[in-house]
Specification:
Chains A, B: This is Acyl-[acyl-carrier-protein] thioesterase. 2 copies of one chain form a homodimer. By secondary structure, the first copy, chain A, is of the alpha+beta class. Chain A has helices at about 25-40, 45-50, 125-130, 170-180, 185-190, and strands at about 5-10, 55-65, 75-85, 90-95, 100-115, 120, 135, 150-155, 190-200, 210-215, 220-230, 235-240. In chain A, β10 (about 210-215) and β11 (about 220-230) form a beta hairpin. The interface of A and B includes residues 17, 32, 165 and 167 of A.
């Protein structure tokens, strides 16, 4: 069993939207902060990874949302680097409220990138060892994206504060650009229940992106479909189920 | 002496920019979170204020920055509602690092607004009493803005996540739109030392704003001048000193 790591977090008002509940991008930020804390605690922080000429890249998050915590709540954020194979590391996250009820569960896929060649590399044993992840041989295939619908699009520019200390656009920003396209009335009257987001290409400072969106037709559920394009290049894609 | 209130805060990676240091807008968010905590602790939280048909509005922040804390640091955020007169409440904030050294000091001006008429009202004694603020008769005049310089401008749209639980654009966003206009190279090679920001008019969801900026000429210091306009209306103005 992979080592679990838990830390408490107080939900700040500025992590919440107009409904007073945690935003989806902030859920990602908070859980990633916890995975970084675990890595630091196991002497595998970004300083160590960078010293090997490597960096972690997140390729997918699959989130199940039971309830988005409110401003002022103290939540427990737990993570474990569950399994890995030659190229992919799978990490789970859970957010629980003060009563121990699960609010959010996330499965994420990480890969290691060579910082010089910008190419994926196989996972060195010394990097993964302290997490006590289970080695698996097969690939865990993430849930597939639903077919794209015709929809609308809105332009965004990568801002200075979108770039984090790893010199990349913070992954949570993609989700920000996706959700922001939906209607104010829709967002204040619907709750996200499942989010499946895949990251395909990194973005650079001052790049212009197009956030395209639409609703998946002819199904009983309300599912929005999102794609982030830089020119002709698909950079990220997501499906979000709402109720 | 006004009651002091302190809470600890761990600086999260997503509160920092590419340099790994806390952003100026996040400094404002963090201190405001602490003033809300104090108000809750004194049974004068937003629920109580709203029940009187009132809401707090911030009109000015004057910040002195010695050092912006880094991701992972635990800081102590202290506040006291120092003084007040008929219409204005003056609140101080201090951020100290783990060694007790002052990183940031802020003096802020708050007014109470009638939520129906959207007009400023005089401060009821029952609202201010528990803070043990000193009543003063004179007006504390904030530092004046330096004369505007000709400069450039960049458009921004008020996004869904710019609106906070108080149904207003979070004040910190104005500072975000201001700082974002400056050059990447400038921002990664300069430190802010003094920030004087004044808020003149609230903004609404989906409004387009123009963030105008320039540098104050013919002085030894490097001071940037910023204005946020919605059409012809000046909504916020700031001077930021850099070194």
């Amino acid at each position: 069993m992979a080592k679990k790591f838990t830390e408490k977090h107080e939900v700040m008002f500025y992590e919440c939207d107009v409904t007073g509940k945690l935003t989806l991008p902030m859920v990602l930020n908070i859980v990633i902060n916890t995975s970084e804390s675990q890595s630091e605690a196991l002497a595998r922080g970004s300083h160590y990874i960078n010293s090997l000429g490597l960096g972690w890249v997140i390729t997918q998050h699959e989130m199940r949302v039971s309830r988005l915590p409110k401003a002022g709540e103290t939540i427990a954020v737990t993570t474990a680097a569950t399994t890995y194979n030659k190229y992919f590391c799978y990490r789970d996250f859970w957010i629980h409220d003060a009563e121990g009820k699960e609010c959010v569960a996330i499965t994420s896929t990480f890969v290691l990138m060579d910082l010089t060649t910008r190419k994926m590399v196989s996972v060195p044993f010394e990097v993964i060892e302290p997490y006590e992840s289970e080695k698996i041989t097969k690939l865990q295939r993430g849930t597939k994206m639903l077919p794209k619908t015709t929809g609308e699009s809105r332009p965004y520019r990568v801002r200075f504060n979108d770039i984090d200390g790893n010199q990349h656009v913070n992954n949570a920003r993609y989700l920000d650009w996706m959700v922001d396209c939906l209607d104010y009335d829709f967002l204040t009257s619907h709750q996200p229940t499942v989010v499946n987001i895949r990251f395909d290409k990194e973005l650079n400072y001052s790049e212009m992106i197009d956030s395209q969106w639409g609703f998946v037709p002819e199904i009983a559920e309300t599912i929005s479909h999102h794609q982030i394009y830089s020119g002709e290049t698909l950079c990220a894609e997501a499906n979000i189920s709402w109720q």
